[in-house]
Write a sequence for this structure.
């Protein structure tokens, strides 16, 4: 039995259902990322786990005990979780020390114990020299670390993060990603992390849960999600890809619209309807003449950009599709010329939906 | 899998539902009951008590009523236009130029909100009454003219418009100056870089951007003057004409014609609602008034040689609206008669002795006024706090309804509310007429919107995640309110309390219909003394009111326990 379980979780606001039956199991000590575009229900799912919103259906269980169901909700203060908010939500009238100590005070610890624990966590997060400052006197990154320290100091059973890095500038964001992962490796709290940034999810998560329209699209390790997407949505959302479609010939063979045959090395096509295949930009090979027998088609170069480490081609192929391909810099094809594209079978992923 | 609810789950008693119901009931009674009785009485015959439409017919056929409405509307628009014409250039000079002393001028105008308009009217009575007015006396003695020469006469329609505009122009000024503060300089820079000169930029960019604020401020000035009782009663009645508020009041004099008064109040209510809707529509146009404040400081224009002309203009306006009236009040309080020259012989404290020790009504009125001020401020702040919490945190379905109720009285002019409360509570069932209770109810209703708006905007300023952070760290709802929300709101609560207190102790429009000999308030005494012509005593009382108002604001801003925030201008 997993530590945190969501079973058939549903949340509706009047006629609008934002979470449409989410099933998810999180093992103790795992860091799970809920990833999806805005409006996909990921933040609502997180707030359901926190107990800020009551479930309309299904259950949330922690350690086998129900904390949320349509019948009732354990209030957030009764869940022994902690959370890092998008706005950091540092209390402006309390110093860094007071902010961090608040949760311990509520747990009725002695002031020596509180002092010791707060100092420890402030040391880990490199905030000790700032303990007497007010949040308004800190930079964005420092505020973020206070927010982390405040959440970690109470040793929560479950740590929740709601887009914690979205208010930071790009450099700091990258740094904090590794910081969060480092702290997770150090403390191993069961963590649920909401983000819309795929690279953030790739760097931090043990398990990525891709959500779309209130449902889980796919859950798996970052490698699973990237290399073995199961749906067009996941393939497009993670990493960017070309989607080719056509008539299904067999479980792994498609007759594409541009009148060429694609053999797929992995995945399964939908049993009926249109067949779709995903090929990542950098897996496609490109050449000025035909060098391959199968999985190949010719098109015309529409755009070519030199990017130092590689070239970025846009090639329009028969059937109206435009394929984006990244090639080594020594492959030089001028705009307007003919180009042969090769889709290596092992990199062609057949998608079921 | 056995799914049981976690042990020790707190079955906390949820107080929000009972509180919601009690508040809903209270606010409904406060707002709906007086309106109901106004409508009921407006269809009731003053003669026999049966159903009638005669009261409404009289609104059209009775020439005194029609005339009172016509004059009131004309006066209100004249005041609005005058306020706008004076306030807009003032606001621009103070907000966007290098005029020397502009911060001080701005502070002074903001502070002048505290002046009760009726006191201003009395100041102008002292200054510009045809015979005894200081200006006329001085003018005659300067040129050796006889007593038939009158330079200025406040007891005219023009005089009334002028006296009211002196005390409504801060509304326009504050809105326009704040709007000018928020016009980001890059919008003006964009115009300049495209070749727009300073005047073109002002005309084509800055002006259109603050136009909504100007219109909104003007509408407030119109509304204020239309529903004002004190100033017209002091100036229009001696001049021999009525505006609608004084006309409604006169219908309460013996023999009372309550049905007609109720019917006469209804158009005033309708006009108020329409004006407020218009104001909301003007200010609510998104992207037009929601001016981004991130684009740096507003551009300051250099006046150069125009500085002296601008200074003269600002000083003239300030003299007319602040220096002269306050000077007149001070002088009158300390000299025998207003027209006396100031010498050591004419200085006297006899008005102070009279007011504080000899005049029997003063002490009672002072006690009543401060008692009601403190009670109203405390109750309104408490109600506003809880209502704003329920509404902004949407912790209960239908909470928005409370917000509507708490805001609704803003559309009920004081005199209309006075009529409604008289009809609701001065009857054998309640018998509240002649008690302080009816005044307390009136003040609570009048001040609720201001208090509520203050509280709800400060709740909106406290990010919900701050409270959620408290909850998830393990604090209960109440504990979170106490540890986190309350400290963050403290300064707003204090500001709202002051706001309501200052508003209460100067109220006259509703009070005048609800007060009796036992429940006199300072504002009413001032009005009574004006009828008997005792200007010295009035000025002493006026100074006491002003000192009390400023003292409360000062204490609230200085005492650290109370928070020390800036007091917002009264809107």
């Amino acid at each position: 039995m997993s530590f945190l379980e969501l079973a058939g979780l549903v949340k509706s606001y009047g006629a609008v259902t934002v979470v449409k039956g989410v099933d998810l199991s999180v093992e103790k000590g795992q860091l799970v990322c809920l990833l999806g575009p805005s409006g996909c229900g990921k933040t609502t799912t997180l707030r359901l786990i926190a107990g800020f919103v009551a479930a309309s259906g299904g259950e949330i269980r922690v350690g086998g005990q129900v904390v949320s169901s349509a019948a009732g909700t354990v209030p957030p203060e009764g869940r022994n979780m902690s959370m890092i908010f998008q706005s950091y939500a540092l209390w402006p009238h309390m110093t860094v020390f007071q902010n961090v100590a608040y949760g311990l005070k509520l747990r009725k610890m002695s002031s020596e114990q509180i002092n010791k624990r707060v100092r420890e966590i402030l040391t880990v997060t490199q905030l000790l020299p700032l303990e007497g400052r007010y949040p308004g006197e800190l930079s964005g990154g420092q505020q973020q670390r206070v927010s982390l320290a405040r959440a970690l100091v109470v040793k929560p059973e479950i740590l929740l993060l709601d887009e914690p890095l979205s208010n930071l500038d790009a450099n700091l964001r990258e740094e904090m990603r590794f910081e969060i992962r480092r702290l997770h490796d150090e403390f191993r709290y069961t963590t649920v992390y909401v983000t819309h940034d795929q690279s953030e999810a790739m760097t931090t998560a043990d398990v990525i849960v891709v959500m779309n329209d209130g449902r889980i699209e796919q859950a798996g390790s970052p490698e699973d999600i990237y290399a073995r997407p199961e749906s067009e949505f996941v393939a497009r959302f993670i990493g960017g890809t070309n989607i080719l479609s056509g008539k299904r010939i067999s479980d792994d063979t498609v007759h594409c619209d541009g009148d060429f045959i694609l053999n797929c090395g992995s995945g399964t096509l939908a049993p009926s309807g249109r067949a779709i295949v995903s090929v990542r930009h950098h897996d496609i090979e490109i050449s000025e003449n035909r060098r391959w027998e199968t999985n190949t088609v010719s098109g015309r170069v529409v755009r070519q950009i030199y990017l130092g480490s590689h070239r970025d081609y846009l090639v329009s192929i028969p059937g109206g599709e435009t394929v984006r391909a990244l090639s080594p810099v020594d492959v030089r094809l001028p705009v307007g010329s003919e180009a042969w594209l090769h889709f290596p079978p092992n990199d062609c992923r057949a998608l079921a939906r | 899998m056995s799914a049981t609810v976690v042990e020790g789950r707190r079955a906390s008693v949820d107080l929000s539902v009972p509180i919601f119901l009690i508040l809903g009931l209270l606010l409904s009674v406060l707002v709906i009951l007086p309106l109901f009785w106004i409508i009921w009485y407006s269809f009731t015959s003053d003669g026999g008590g049966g159903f009638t439409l005669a009261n409404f017919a009289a609104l059209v056929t009775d020439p005194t009523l029609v005339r009172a409405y016509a004059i009131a509307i004309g006066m209100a628009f004249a005041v609005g236009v005058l306020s706008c014409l004076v306030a807009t250039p003032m606001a621009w000079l103070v907000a966007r130029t290098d005029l020397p002393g502009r911060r001080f001028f701005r502070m002074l105008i903001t502070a002048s909100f505290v002046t009760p308009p009726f006191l201003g009217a009395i100041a102008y009575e002292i200054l510009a009454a045809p015979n005894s007015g200081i200006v006329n006396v001085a003018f005659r003695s300067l040129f050796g003219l006889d007593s038939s020469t009158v330079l200025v006469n406040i007891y005219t329609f023009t005089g009334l418009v002028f006296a009211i505009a002196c005390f409504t122009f801060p509304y326009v000024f504050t809105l326009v100056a704040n709007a000018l503060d928020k016009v980001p300089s890059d919008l003006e820079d964009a115009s300049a870089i495209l070749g727009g000169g300073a005047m073109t930029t002002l005309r084509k960019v800055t002006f259109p951007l603050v136009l909504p604020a100007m219109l909104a401020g003007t509408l407030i000035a119109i509304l204020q003057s239309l529903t004002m009782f004190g100033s017209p009663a002091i100036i229009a009645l001696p001049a021999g004409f009525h505006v609608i508020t004084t006309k409604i009041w006169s219908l309460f004099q013996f023999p009372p014609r309550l049905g007609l008064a109720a019917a006469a109040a209804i158009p005033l209510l309708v006009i108020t609602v329409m004006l407020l809707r218009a104001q909301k529509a003007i200010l609510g146009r998104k992207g037009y008034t929601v001016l981004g404040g991130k684009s740096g400081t507003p551009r300051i224009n250099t006046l150069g040689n125009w500085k002296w002309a601008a200074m003269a203009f600002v000083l003239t306006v300030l003299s007319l609206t602040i220096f002269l009236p306050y000077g007149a009040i001070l002088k009158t309080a300390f000299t025998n008669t207003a027209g006396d020259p100031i010498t050591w012989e004419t200085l006297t404290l006899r008005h102070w002795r009279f007011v504080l020790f000899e005049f029997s009504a003063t002490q009672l009125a002072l006690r009543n006024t401060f008692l009601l001020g403190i009670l109203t401020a405390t109750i309104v702040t408490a109600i506003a706090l809880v209502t704003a919490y329920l509404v902004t945190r949407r912790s209960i379905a239908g909470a928005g309804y409370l917000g509507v109720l708490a805001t609704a009285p803003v559309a009920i002019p004081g005199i209309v509310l006075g009529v409604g409360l008289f009809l609701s509570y001065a009857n054998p069932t309640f018998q509240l007429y002649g008690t302080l209770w009816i005044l307390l109810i009136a003040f609570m209703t009048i001040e609720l919107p201001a208090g509520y708006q203050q509280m709800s905007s400060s709740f909106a300023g406290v990010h919900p995640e701050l409270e959620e952070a408290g909850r998830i760290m393990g604090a209960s709802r109440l504990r979170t309110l106490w540890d986190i929300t309350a400290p963050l709101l403290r300064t707003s609560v204090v500001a709202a309390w002051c706001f309501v207190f200052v508003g209460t102790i100067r109220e006259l429009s509703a009070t005048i219909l609800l007060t009796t000999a036992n429940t006199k308030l300072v504002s009413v005494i001032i009005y009574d003394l004006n009828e008997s012509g005792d200007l010295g005593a009035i000025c002493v009382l006026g100074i006491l009111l002003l000192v009390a108002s400023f003292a409360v604001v000062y204490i609230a801003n200085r005492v650290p326990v109370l928070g020390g925030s800036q007091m917002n201008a009264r809107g």
